[in-house]
């Protein structure tokens, strides 16, 4: 089973294009969030998901999964709603996709220099991550 097949089965049957759209908009939200990805990860930690965040950043540790509701709690309803508007998907579908994509995205960034990077470096890492979805 390929990466897109795994994403599709875990996030409610979204197509590869829909996952790519959510991932792209999630990257935009990360770049616009105060503190970038580190700021978003702090939100997750403050909401009791510190163990999850730590697992995503450890290369030799399996990523702890989050539920769609936990994705919304960590990202905030505003982020989910904005992504839903921009992609034309329901907030429920966006939450499901974000719950799958976010841990993989953080793990990818951790493997490639960490999450505390300059925005231009984050953009190049995002391109590399998104290429894995396609």
- Helicity range: over 70%
- Give me the strand/helix succession: HHHHHHHH
Shape: globular
- How many E strands? 0
Q: Roughly what fraction of the amino acids lie in strands?
A: under 5%
Low-confidence stretches: 1-11, 117-122
The overall pLDDT, averaged over residues, is 77
Distance between the termini: 14 Å
What does the main sheet amount to? none
Individual helix count:
8
Q: Which structural class matches the secondary elements?
A: mainly alpha
What's the alpha carbon Rg, rounded to whole Å? 13 Å
Task: Offer a concise description of the structure.
With 134 residues, this protein is mainly α. It has helices at residues 3-10, 16-32, 36-46, 50-57, 68-75, 77-87, 91-111, 119-133.
Question: Explain this structure to me?
Answer:
- This protein is 74% helix and 0% strand.
- Mean pLDDT is 77; it is low at 1-11 and 117-122.
- With 134 residues, the chain is mainly α.
- The protein contains 8 helices and no strands.
């Amino acid at each position: 089973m390929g990466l897109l097949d795994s994403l599709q089965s875990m996030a409610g049957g979204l197509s590869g294009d829909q996952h790519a759209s959510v991932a792209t908009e999630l990257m935009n939200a990360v770049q616009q969030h105060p503190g970038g990805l580190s700021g978003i990860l702090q939100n997750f930690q403050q909401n009791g998901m510190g163990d999850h965040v730590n697992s995503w950043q450890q290369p030799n540790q399996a990523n702890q999964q989050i539920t769609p509701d936990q994705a919304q709690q960590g990202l905030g309803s505003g982020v989910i709603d904005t992504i839903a508007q921009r992609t034309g998907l329901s907030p429920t579908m966006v939450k499901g996709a974000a719950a799958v994509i976010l841990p993989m995205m953080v793990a990818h960034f951790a493997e490639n220099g960490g999450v505390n990077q300059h925005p231009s470096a984050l953009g190049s890492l995002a391109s590399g991550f998104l290429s894995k979805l396609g």
